[in-house]
Amino acid sequence: MDVLYPYIILAPAAGLLANLLAGRRLGDPGAGIAGSLAAGTAFGLAVWQFLLLRLHPEGAVVSLGEWIRIGALEIPWAFRVDTLSVTMALVVTGVGTLIHIYAIGYMHGDPGFARFFVYLNLFLVAMLVLVGADNYAVLFVGWEGVGLCSYLLIGFWFDRGEGGTANATAGRKAFVVNRIGDLGLLIAMFLMYRTFGTLDFDGVFGGAEAALIAGAPVAVAIALALLVGAAGKSAQIPLFVWLPDAMAGPTPVSALIHAATMVTAGVYLIVRSHVLFELAPMAQAATVATGAATALLAATAAVAQFDIKRVLAYSTISQLGFMVAAAGLGAYTAAIFHLVTHAFFKALLFLAAGSVIHGLEHGGAGHQEPGTRHSQDMRTMGGLRRRMPVTFAVYTAGALALAGLPPLSGFFSKDEILVAAYAHGPLVFGTLCAAAFLTAFYMGRQIFLVFTGSPRSPEAADAAESGRVMTAPLIGLALLAVFGGVLNLPGTAALGEWLSHAIGHGEHPAFSLPIAIGATGLAVAGGWLAGRLYRSAPEAGPDPLKVRLGGLFAFLSRAWRLDDLYAAWIVGPFKRLAAVLDAGEIKVISLPERLLAGLTVRAGRGLSLLHTGQLNWNMAGIVAGFIALLLAIGWMR
Amino acid sequence: MNDSPLFSLLALLLLAAPAAYLFGRVVPGLRIGRLTPARWIALLALAGAWIPFAAAQRAFVESGPPVFRLGGISLEMDGIGLLLAALALGLGGLVTVFSGPAEEGEDGEEKYFAMLLAMVGAMVGLGCAADLFNLWLWFEAMTISSYLLVAFHRDQPASLEAGVKYLVQSAAGSVFVLLGIAVVLANTGTLDLAEIALHPPEPALLAAAGLFITGYGVKAALVPLHTWLPDAHSQAPSGISAMLSGVVIEAALVALLRALAVTAGVVPSWGALLIVLGAVNMLAGNLLALVQREVKRLLAYSSVSHLGYILMGLGFSLEAGQAAGAQGGLFHLLNHGLMKGLAFLAAGALIHALRLQMGGSFRALVIDDLDGAYRRYPLVAITFSLAVLSLAGLPPLAGFMSKWQIIAAGVAGREAWLIGMAHFAGFNSMLSFVYYLPLVSAVYRGVPSPAVQAGSPVPGAMQVPLLALALAIAVLGIWPGLAGGLVEPAGAALMEMFR
User: Fold this and answer.
1) Residues B76, B128: contact at Cβ < 8 Å?
2) CB of A627 less than 8 A from some CB of B
3) Is B276 at the interface with chain A, CB within 8 A?
4) Burial of A65 by CB count in 10 Å (0-12 exposed, 13-18 middle, 19+ buried)?
5) Residue B173 forms contact with A (CB below 8 Å)
6) pLDDT in tens, A114-173
7) How far apart are CA A348 and CA A426, in angstroms?
8) Quick check: B291 and A632 CB within 8 A?
């Protein structure tokens, strides 16, 4: 089979270089077109690779040369083309291309226009390295690369936000929290190397299957360390706190990186390493627990947000919880299926939300500085259905898909997860059902707050529909969100068949009509409740849910106050410790240094005092030197 | 014997010196373009000198050191002589190019170039001297020609003061040398270096060794005999500062080593003494440079410490009996000539451009004057920082390679105190960053100093030598092997001398 994968990576790399070198000259929208062309080329190549792979679904590995060789450790720049990596590459480049095109409109007029596309292309490069790697070391390169891009793009408007630093702080927070996850991945790699002597996927999995029995401590340790890595990147408990703040980035970034692709890397990591997880039932249980708990917690947080993007951010965390739980349950196809459909409808929702924000900012009354919180507050919206009909239509399609209404894509993928959870036990099933109910509720709340009723601010009254370059990708994504379910329709199970070449057959939960009906019922109920509360919401005044929940609402809106917990128990003590050590460093540790420095300078001054510049002293120096020399020679003798 | 390339080399330089003076004096109108007769004669002589030098080097490679005999006097160009001649010719030529605009219109310009030629010729001869008396004679010739150059600005009190100190202290040193020669002659009956070395060791030669080290040590700036150096090196015209720091003290060191070598049989090894002298020089030079505000004075003290590295490298090889330290030390000698030459020339270019020493005003260049020099004089600033960073020992510049070679040779000695001394050298090199880096950071500061703001452009003739030396420093740092043709025979010659 011809392996095109390196060229798929090369395309955005070329775009990145072009914009890096000539971005300013290409200008606005030239730089965006160049970046989009690069992404589109990558997508075309990925499709070609997909077609080739259909003929030889067993896949292939290509090595571009040696990277590291230390003793027995050999790490090549190797890429693996199999059904899993190509599926991921299709999602990354496909959704990525649409978002690139959208960004041409969204970022129009921004002074950092070319820089934005440099980062976006760099992200594609890193993400493609991540999903295409054939060993954990190369995967780690991509893993860190996407982390870097995430940091750079969250802080893209680094001079904005509260106090002029809030965006930069959000970027830093994302980076630091992700480091904890990265450490988990690193430890997993160290353990793998120690146990199996290699980091190649085949070597590790083959070694694990050959040498380890189920439940072996080393397998559990590796799988748990991988879970920590996944929890960092995929925003699971207890490391999800960075993702809501990451919404400080431009909306295309939220859609591409913080919804559709990068945050799913953790799910991909678990699925890719499923052999290790299957040898560690305890780690699998921990994965399920983490995913289910995250799904519920984030869903409860999403119902209490007012920022249009923060609702979606918590929703993303919740849906990632569904995927992680599915991966832990062994329902890998379901996890990847939900990953794909989620990429469609969540990217759609973010971009549509961006369209709403853009519409408010650039409407008739749009004199607002972009990126300010105000234009993202749902309490200032309302009645946008008439002013932004296209956005309203696609938003509704995305929301229904997310809520899981048949026959939209989210219905099929979520249903598979629920079936797997039902087979596992009532606790996980119940938790995920509750999360599914809340999903429908918060999406309904959002639609009613944003699009129905009457405008609650002058901006909302003057909002204008976004241009063609933004709405066209929205419509494309809406079609995907609506019809994406055909990938793995019950009965055909095309995706499961396709992925089985890469990850084995695993569990294929059968379609269950009672569960499907029940889940649909939950979604309808959630939506109905939202309508009851918010459809007749007063023009101004407190949130109806807030009135009913009281103090609990604030607790939920702060995501169960996990951030406060960290501030009080980790960040605070750490800062105090740092202050103590800092003072100690100055007083104690640097004392010898300062003493030495002071002595040196003083010695120099003292010595220069001997240099009076008077000739007789100089001559005395010569005589003294001669005498000292004679003494020295005598002593040598 | 007069077809010897050595003879042609010396004759060319020593005849060109009076010719430059006479033509400059008698027919000053005989210009070529803007070049005065003294200058074009000097340029021609120093460029043409490479032809006999190349012949001498070919002879060296093919049939051993070329020898030139005249009556009882013999000159022999061994590896060390070759190295010294190359450095003197190279730096002398570049200084001549540089000094054109610097000394243009100065009173007595023809003397400047005549003396420069004489000094270069004397240094070539010094490197080849094969007996103690002629060694001293060439040394004196070099010294005398340099007096006039140090006190070249004879209407400036500071220059005169520096010249007087230089004269008196050098003369005292000469006396020590003469006494040493007398002691040797009285005890061995010969002055030929090779013959004395064959003579059975006499304890009296120890005294001679002490006299030689002291006498030549004054010129080589051994602490505490170095006190003339900061005045002379900072008050001389910058081209001369470059020569003094870059070649003259090194030539004196060569003389010291040649004279000391005749007493090699009297003590087990002179290595230990050289190492200790090197350590003292290093530390004292560094500490004194640390508190300087004047750029040229700082560079002068840094020469004291760099002589310490050279001494230590040579000491390591004598002590451990292996050539690596000698090669490192002699490589550093070559590099120091290039780096310090460049540093002084760059400082001189700034002094010229900022008109600090023109007309009525005459003041030293201080560190604060360097502020923001990069903005107006990018080439000078970059080459100056390259020189300074190389002196500090920043890889991958030449200064790092030779310092590293010296330290590695010490560690390879495998004796606790040698390893300790190598560490001492390393720490000193680190300490030197403390005074080198402020020079670099000043040059790139955002706000130019008043002097820089009021400065005039740097003439092209001054920039060419800066570029050439900077290139040499960078290239030698990356391919130190290029200097192998000079450094390896010189190291071998040193080991031979002290055997």
Assistant:
1) yes
2) no
3) yes
4) exposed
5) yes
6) 999 999 999 999 999 999 999 999 999 999 999 999 999 999 998 888 888 899 999 999
7) 33
8) no
Residue type, A247: M
Rounded average pLDDT over B133-152: 93
Strands of B71-170 (E only): list them.
Answer: 73-76
Q: Quick check: A373 pLDDT over 60? A: no
Whether B134 has a pLDDT exceeding 70, the answer reads yes
Backbone angles phi, psi at B386, to 5 degrees: -60, -45
Q: How many C-beta neighbours within 10 Å does residue A452 have?
A: 19
> How far apart, in whole angstroms, are the C-alpha atoms of residue B380 and residue B353?
10
For residue B386, give how far its alpha carbon lies from the nearest alpha carbon of chain A (Å). 25
Query: Which ranges of A5-61 does DSSP label H, i.e. alpha helix?
Result: 5-55
Does B179 contact A at CB distance below 8 Å? no
Residue type, B135: L
Q: What DSSP designation does A408 have? A: S
- Hey, are the CB atoms on A604 and B267 less than 8 Å from each other? no
Q: How far is the C-alpha of A399 from the C-alpha of A139, rounded, in Å?
A: 33
Q: Cis ω on the peptide bond leading into residue A458 (within 30° of 0)? A: no
Region A239-261 average pLDDT: 92
> CA dist A634 to A630, B77, B223, B258, B266, Å?
6, 34, 19, 21, 12
pLDDT tens per residue, range A288-321: 999 999 999 999 999 999 999 999 999 999 999 9
Residues in chain A: 637
Helix (H) or strand (E) holding A579: helix A572-584
- Count of C-beta atoms within a 10 Å radius of residue B469: 29
Class of residue B199 by CB neighbours under 10 A (exposed 0-12, middle 13-18, buried 19+): middle
Query: Cβ contact (<8 Å) for A624 and B224?
Result: yes
**pLDDT tens digit string along B145-188?**
999 999 888 888 888 999 999 999 999 999 999 999 999 999 99
Per DSSP bridges, beta strands A60-70 and A73-81 are antiparallel
Contact call for B172 and A603, based on CB within 8 A:
no
Instruction: Check if B175 contacts A (Cβ < 8 Å).
Output: no
- Name the residue of chain A whose CA is nearest to B289's CA: A604
Structure tokens at B252: 């004196």
What single string gives the DSSP state of each residue in A441-476?
Answer: HHHHHHHHHHHSS--SSHHHHH-----HHHHHHHHH
Q: What residue type is assigned to position A568 of the chain?
A: A
Q: CA A246, A249, A253 angle in degrees (round to 5)?
A: 100
Q: A600, A610, A614, A622: which to substitute to probe chain B, counting the most B Cβ within 10 Å? A: A622
Is there a contact between B477 and B396 (Cβ–Cβ < 8 Å)?
A: yes
B288 and A604 within 8 Å at the Cβ level: the answer is yes
Number of A to B CB contacts under 8 A, please give it.
76
Complex confidence, ipTM: 0.88
Look up tokens 């990186």; give the residue.
A257
Our CA angle for A580, A585, A586, nearest 5°, is 105
Calculate mean pLDDT across residues A181-204.
94
A374 has a pLDDT exceeding 60: no
Contacts of A624 in chain B (CB under 8 A): 224
Our CA angle for A220, A222, A224, nearest 5°, is 65
How does residue A366 score in pLDDT terms, banded at 50, 70 and 90? Answer: very low
Tokens 């290595």 locate to B271
Q: Residue B190 to residues A246, B71, B182, B194, B206: CA-CA distances in angstroms?
A: 89, 16, 10, 10, 16
Range with lowest mean pLDDT among B75-84, B117-126, B358-367: B358-367
Q: Show the tokens assigned to A477.
A: 């994504």
